Amino acid sequence: MDGLKNAGGGNGPVPTSEEIQARIGKRLDDVAKILAGALVAVAGVMTALGLNSEFVFVALNNESWPIYVASLCAIIAIVCSIVALLIHPTQRGNMWETVVLVLGVVFYMVSLSVAVIGAAKAAGGNGRPTITDVKLEGPRSDLKLSFDVHADGVETWASLAVYVESVDARSEQLDGSDLYESSLRPNDKGVVEQRISLPISPPARAVGVAITALNAGEKDTEDNCQARTERGPACTTLRLPGS
Questions:
Q1: How far apart are CA 28 and CA 4, in angstroms?
Q2: Looking at residue 114, what DSSP letter applies?
Q3: Which member of 11, 16, 93, 132 lies 3.0 to 4.6 Å from 88 by CB, making a disulfide possible if both were Cys?
Q4: Cα distance between residue 201 and residue 166, in whole Å
Q5: Can you tell me the distance from the alpha carbon of 5 to that of 199, in angstroms, rounded to the nearest whole number?
Q6: Which burial class, exposed, middle or buried, applies to 28 when counting CB atoms under 10 A from its CB (0-12, 13-18, 19+)?
Q7: Whole-angstrom Cα distance, residue 160 to residue 170?
Q8: Short-list 214, 49, 66, 67, CA closest to 130
């Protein structure tokens, strides 16, 4: 016979063990090269979901854990790919390379999955309210208060509580001096956008008016305005005319 039959029944030289392991090693190296772009893949997923550099900085400032976890997993996947590329393609080496690549693929998939969560969380905001465009017009006998309340990333089942209260010279609330109270629900996109305008009649002993916007259920938290929380309240105090 001309030549030897290989294991597949065709004619030709039978590949040696070293050649077989080299071929396997080459295929494993191809997988390793794919994992080497883990960070690029994670960044691509976040960009595709609308997470630009502005949202990334906001997320990092708010200590958004998915961004950190996704980046860490992507880095581990890259390390696994580099280790896999450095392993010599022997039978034992290919076995270890396979183990390393399996770990790399796991971290790669985790990083992509968490990147989706991170992008959604960062792009959606965190529900922190703000008070803007505050105006107090007219004489004390005929005051009109107006202001805007805004928040994004509010859960659809949650709400923002808005309070207007009379305060004394030390900015402490006067008993029985609530001037306004409202509960604002977000729209389908999780956004609260409300312009509030109302006449107010503060008691004679009042020196100012305090406006507070916070996530519902947090009103009884001590020192709300100074609380170091992710969704801390927004507080504004205005001095009344003639005080």
A1: 29
A2: H
A3: 93
A4: 9
A5: 98
A6: buried
A7: 26
A8: 214
How many Å apart are CA 156 and CA 167, to the nearest integer?
33
What integer is the mean pLDDT of 202-215?
88
Q: What would the two tokens of residue 202 be?
A: 């503060």
**Residue 76, C-beta contacts closer than 8 angstroms, at least 6 positions apart:** 103, 104, 107
For residues 121 and 64, the answer to whether their CB atoms sit within 8 Å is yes
For residue 9, how many other CB atoms are within 10 A of its CB?
Answer: 6
Tokens 């080299």 belong to 22
DSSP code per residue over 116-143? HHHHHHHHT-----EEEEEEEES-GGGE
pLDDT over 50 (residue 2): no
Place of tokens 């595709």: 48
What is the C-alpha to C-alpha distance for residues 177 and 175, in angstroms, rounded to an integer?
5
For the entire predicted model, the pTM comes to: 0.55
- Say which residue, 10 or 101, is predicted with more confidence: 101
Q: Which two tokens stand for residue 213?
A: 């916007």
